[in-house]
Amino acid sequence: MFGSFAPTPYDLRFELLGIPVRVHPIFWLSSGWLAWHRGRLDIVAVQVLCIFLAVLVHEMGHALVTRRFGWQPEIVLHMLGGYATSMRHSTWKDIAVSAAGPGAGFLLLLAIWLPCEMLGLLLPGSTIMHPRFNFEAMENWPEVIASGTRGNQLIRVAIGFSFFFNFIINIINLLPVLPLDGGQISREYWLWAKPRQGMQICLMLGVGTGGAVAAWALYSMSNRDTPWSIGRILGLDGLFLGVMFGYLAYLSFEELQKSRGGRW
Ligand SMILES: [Zn+2]
Predict the structure, then answer these.
(1) Which of 42-51, 83-92, 140-149, 208-217 has the lowest mean pLDDT?
(2) Cα dihedral 48/180/238/77 (nearest 10)
(3) Which of 3-7, 54-58, 141-145, 216-220 has the highest mean pLDDT?
(4) Which residue has the higher pLDDT, 141 or 256?
(5) ω into 179 cis (within 30 of 0)
(6) Is 47 helix (H, G, I), strand (E, B) or coil?
(7) Residue 134: pLDDT above 90?
(8) How many CA atoms lie within 13 A of 97 on its CB side?
């Protein structure tokens, strides 16, 4: 979503299920910044790996469906995210490609949640955003005891952070704001439903949604303790979301003005 990232000699390259993947160095830097935990490089490393897994699975969703429709995609991981190259096919195929990223992300979330439930690691009343761990169940794991409490703590960090991160990136991506996945779905849908005004409706929806999230973020920053603040509901600092959605709303607004020939 931040443009294309040219190859560098420091890119990590590999293939997954026949799909070429390239990881730009900025991916590790931006993930390390997001995962930063002072004095605990082990926690930073575990969280960076969780981000890597979450973003890779999300992009694999897009890529696998793209290939299913007959195109050879490539995945690039960069600034706090990634993209899978894709071609335009048809309305419903494009919508399927866009939805497949968040879809794969929610499947990963389920694939982590279910074993935790089955192993009794989560206490009743746990939610994705606020998992409550059953420490006693974990202490009975011989291999975990062998690695001491630090190993135990890292497993909790990996599970808790994966819940949080997968949920957040896939939910946020579904909002109808270009160039997020939800924005792509909205554009395809509206162009199909109303070929003449479709693009304008999609952009107006983007301005409204992006502006609403930015306003919510501003409200949250001055009212941190109200139950409706972003911090309370999503466990996130409002600043990042506010800046991001404010910027995306502005981009949609600019496009909208262009499409109206400068009239507003
Ligand atoms: Zn996506």
Answers:
(1) 140-149
(2) 20
(3) 54-58
(4) 256
(5) yes
(6) helix
(7) no
(8) 23
CA of 122 to the centre of ligand 1 (A): 29
User: How far apart (Å, rounded) are the C-alpha atoms in residues 1 and 204?
Assistant: 19
Cα(233) to centroid(ligand 1), Å: 23
The string of DSSP letters for 5-29 reads ----TT-EEEEETTEEEEE-HHHHH
Question: 175 and 162 in contact (C-beta within 8 Å)?
Answer: no
Mean pLDDT of all residues in the chain? Answer: 86
Q: What are phi and psi of 140, to 5 degrees?
A: -85, 0
Q: Which residues contact 140 (CB under 8 A, 6 or more apart)?
A: none
Looking at residue 139, its pLDDT comes to 59
255 CA → ligand 1 middle, Å? 21
CA of 179 to the centre of ligand 1 (A): 9
Residue whose pair of structure tokens reads 């910027």 in the numeric block: 247
Among 148, 44, 172, 167, smallest CA distance to 110 is for 167
78's enclosing H/E stretch is: strand 75-78
Q: What distance in angstroms lies between residue 83's CA and the mean position of ligand 1's atoms? A: 7
Number of CB atoms found within 10 A of residue 107's CB: 13
88, 188 Cβ separation under 8 angstroms:
no
Contact 16, 56 (CB under 8 A): yes
Determine the pLDDT at residue 148.
52
Per-residue confidence (pLDDT) for residue 162, from 0 to 100: 92
Q: How confident is the model at residue 145 (pLDDT cuts 50, 70, 90)?
A: very low
Q: What would the two tokens of residue 102 be?
A: 């968040």
